[in-house]
Design brief:
The chain is of the alpha+beta class. It is built from seven helices and six strands, in the order βααααββββαβαα.
């Protein structure tokens, strides 16, 4: 059952941003150190920088849009918070530039009950559900930056009323 009445989409990544760039830099250093000695690198900074840009592209590009492997589409079903899960097709998640997303589950984790239909009560249920998703998606990075930046400014009671088809 796929819902179009989700209220927010949370991205899921293969790994956290800092780890991705750390691995990319280690790979570049390994490549450069096996090809050029330290003196050559110091005397040719433009060449090293050009090669670094080329390596970044061949490695997989920037993290934010290229390492995404899934999305959690949060929605309300009556007094519950649930989240559809969409993920890339290949079972093994590796760095790649070609991705096709497919529907995986109508709820990623056990639903979270909204006991208190106030802004703080609804937000608490959403956060509880996201916490369950994090436990379900071990070794993956759920990117909550936008949610964290917006959550205090949203009228959750109004969102619940508008987005809840089963109330």
């Amino acid at each position: 059952m796929i819902f179009d009445d989700y209220f927010i989409v949370i991205p899921v990544y293969r790994l956290p941003e800092d780890k991705y760039y750390s691995e990319m830099n280690k790979d570049f250093e390994k490549l450069v150190s096996s090809t050029w000695d330290e003196d050559f690198r110091k005397n040719n900074p433009d060449l090293v920088e050009n090669w670094k840009r080329s390596h970044r592209s061949s490695y997989g590009g920037d993290w934010e849009f290229n390492e995404i492997i899934g999305h959690i589409k949060l929605f309300f079903m009556g007094s519950q918070v649930r989240g559809e899960y969409w993920s890339t097709k290949p079972r093994r998640k590796v760095k790649t530039r070609k991705k096709e997303f497919e529907f995986k589950a109508h709820k990623l984790a056990a639903e979270s009950e909204i006991w208190d239909k106030t802004n703080s009560g609804i937000l608490s249920a959403i956060e509880e559900y996201l916490s369950r998703c994090e436990r379900e998606l071990k070794n993956r990075h759920i990117d909550l930056r936008e949610f964290e930046a917006l959550k205090a400014h949203i009228d959750w009671v109004s969102v619940h009323k508008v987005k809840n088809k089963f109330a």
